[in-house]
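Dear colleague,

Thank you for sharing your sequence with our group. We've completed the structure prediction you requested, and as agreed, I am returning the results in plain text so they can be pasted directly into your records. Please verify that the sequence below matches your submission; if there's any discrepancy, let me know and we will rerun it promptly.
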Amino acid sequence: MPSTDKIYPIREIAWRANVSCHQLRYWEKVGLLFPDYSDSGHRLYSEQDIAEARRIACLIRIGASLVGIAREKKLRATA
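Please find the predicted structure tokens below.
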């Protein structure tokens, strides 16, 4: 089971999900990712966040829009 501890900095999740830090910040801005913040203001991510970033990146590669991904995520959350 993936850890829910938010311990990974943005560069680590970007590398592990094969996306840019800019993309991760944008996905946060539009409500697709929800990192925690350290006391010094740095974003911190969990293993679940990494899996979600990979899923988002995969959906974008196959042609899904961010609006579509957000709708699908909302449906998954309410199911």
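Summary note from our side: The chain is about 55% helix and 10% strand.

Kind regards,
the structure core
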